[in-house]
Amino acid sequence: MKAQTVKTGKVYILSGSPQCTLINGKEKNMDAMIYQGGFDMLFIQFYNQGLVSCTARSRARKNGGDFNYSKWITYVNRAGSASANARLYIGLLGGPTAGAKDDYLKVAEVKNLISTYGKANQLGGVMLWEAQATQLNNDAGIPVNQRYWHVVKVAMMVSPPSLPSLYTPYVILRSRC
Questions:
Q1: 36 touches 14 (CB < 8 A)
Q2: Residues 86-103: pLDDT tens digits?
Q3: What is the pTM of this model?
Q4: Peptide bond just before 27 cis, omega within 30 deg
Q5: Average pLDDT of every residue of the chain
Q6: Strand ranges for the chain from DSSP E
Q7: Is 78 helix (H, G, I), strand (E, B) or coil?
Q8: Cβ-contact 156, 170 below 8 angstroms
Q9: Are 103 and 144 in contact (CB under 8 A)?
Q10: Strand arrangement, sheet containing 87-93
Q11: DSSP assignments along 112-130, one per residue
Q12: Domain 2-7+14-174, CATH
């Protein structure tokens, strides 16, 4: 892909969506791709990992828990990695019906997470899975004229990551379609 950018003069952005689990310091499904592929953005799934403790829910339950965002910074920047300096997005469930219900973060929990990691190294923003569930989510305490994604967006604006002009969105909705 990087060669295509040089060849065509067009900007191509390479993104991936790995799971948060790092086994012996490596992502179990995409390690070779991350190391060799030169990703610009990684939308890390900090949800739907069963009993694995790297999830955002683990952080909320254990007052910090084993949420491994900082390990991801080390992982993508390891020696020789073509994905060094990739923007990392914290992937969360956009609603209780979007995945494993126990991994869904309530508004106060997601605001706390963003206030802690909003200025973290290499943070690109927050990715919410799944777009339809996010649009329908009207979590308790959210005014009727807002939705969960809006609350996340506002929280990101309070603690925005420093991004090059290429990366303007803070909240990205991902869909199955």
A1: no
A2: 999 999 999 988 998 889
A3: 0.85
A4: no
A5: 83
A6: 15-16, 22-23, 26-27, 41-45, 87-93, 123-129, 171-174
A7: coil
A8: yes
A9: no
A10: 15-16, 41-45, 87-93, 123-129, 171-174
A11: HHHHHHTT-TTEEEEEEE-
A12: 3.20.20.80
**Structural domain boundaries of the chain?**
2-7+14-174
Interval 106-115: pLDDT, tens: 888 888 899 8
Choose the weakest-confidence range: 13-22, 66-75, 168-177. 168-177
Q: Is 93 left (phi over 0), alpha (psi -120 to 50) or beta?
A: beta
Q: What one-letter code names the amino acid at 142? A: I
C-beta separation of 58 from 69 below 8 A: no
> Which residue shows structure tokens 């206030």?
115
Q: Averaged over 22-33, what is the pLDDT? A: 93
Q: Which two tokens stand for residue 125?
A: 């923003």
